[in-house]
Structure formats: structure tokens, C-alpha cells
Amino acid sequence: KAGVTQTPRYLIKTRGQQVTLSCSPISGHRSVSWYQQTPGQGLQFLFEYFSETQRNKGNFPGRFSGRQFSNSRSEMNVSTLELGDSALYLCASSLYGPVDTEAFFGQGTRLTVV
Amino acid sequence: EDKVVQSPLSLVVHEGDTVTLNCSYEVTNFRSLLWYKQEKKAPTFLFMLTSSGIEKKSGRLSSILDKKELFSILNITATQTGDSAVYLCCQGGSEKLVFGKGTKLTVNP
User: Fold this and answer.
1) Average pLDDT over residues A59-82
2) Nearest Cβ partner for B42 among A42, A100, A107
3) Would you list which residues of chain B are within 8 Å, Cβ to Cβ, of chain A?
4) What CA–CA distance (Å, rounded) separates B89 from B99?
5) Residue B58: predicted pLDDT
6) What is the C-alpha to C-alpha distance for residues B89 and B72, in angstroms, rounded to an integer?
7) Helix, strand or coil, per DSSP, at residue B18
């Protein structure tokens, strides 16, 4: 059974640019959630999608957005990048959601904004 | 806003020691308390607790939840160097997880 795949693994962008990260969940999982991890703030919830609908969103500015496709693959987009957006971005897939079922995390995308 | 506090933030022990990691939480819409282990990048699932007072066990690891006092503990007995990792506690509610900052455990041979 293939795990959660995130692409790309590493990314360097310039301030002001935008970026799109991709997450392919485990087959059969309908929930994909996204997290930002930084040394100072730890792991913080960005948003969760279930069957193409956003069910909840964390306390991040509107520059952070996402979507989920009918095959459950998900993308997150960050526009107008700031230096503070440099972080490890993790996605996790689960059957019914990370609150009620085990979440399987991908290896993450390391984003560096210069 | 919900808050999860873990202690200690870091811990160094010798192989064979027993450790207890603590997690306290504030709840508005509590549904679950979860523990994850993060060795490199991808956290891996350890336990999900929803009922108070019921211990979950997996090998040398065990965890228990106290919903009245709003805390959970993770015990690791007979620690091994492979247990070295960051242990993350998170509270699940309203379709989102709130994570603590983690406890970094280092097990020396």
C-alpha cells in the first residue's frame, strides 16, 4: 500500500512569489489535512479537506489556500510569499479525518523563502 | 483558542530507563487526544485516546487520559536508542488537531 506522497520535497522561492504544493493521499482515504512546522511554533494546523470540501481552517492569513480534487489529491497554495513562510509543510491523509482516525503523514515539502 | 502544553520539552536518559511524558490540554470541543512520534520528518501514529481512565498499550509504550484533569501521559519502559525522537501530543476537536511543541527524547546507549 503506497504511503502519502508530497511533491516537491524541497523548494526555494523568492519573496512575493507564489507556490503550489501537492499531496497524494493513501488510496481510499478521503481526508487530507495540511500543517506548517517551524522550530518556533511547532506543528500548526492549516486546513482539512474531506471529499473535496474544506471542513476547517486554522489561523493563517488568506494567502494560504487549498483544494481537493475528486481523486482526493490535494494542493495547497501560498501567494505573496514572506520570509516567515519558510517551513516544513506536511500533509496527512486519513479515512474519516485526523481527529477520529489515525493520520498518515507524508515526508513533507521543505519551503525556503529568500 | 485551544492550547496543548507538553513537558518536559527535552529529556536525556540512558537505555533501559523508564520515561513519562506529560501533556495537558484546554478543551472547547474535545473529541480525542493523540500521540505521534516524529523521528525525521513524517510523524507516525502511536495512540488515540477518547475515554478517560482507559490505558492504551503497544509493547513498551502506554498512554492514559484523564478527562477530568485534562491531561495525558505517555510512558515508555526499558527505553532503547531507537526511541530517540520528538513525541507530539495533540488534541482533536472541531475537525482540526492542535499540537503541543513536543518532547524531544534522547536515549543514550
Assistant:
1) 97
2) A107
3) 1, 31-32, 34, 41-45, 48, 88, 90, 92-102
4) 6
5) 96
6) 9
7) coil
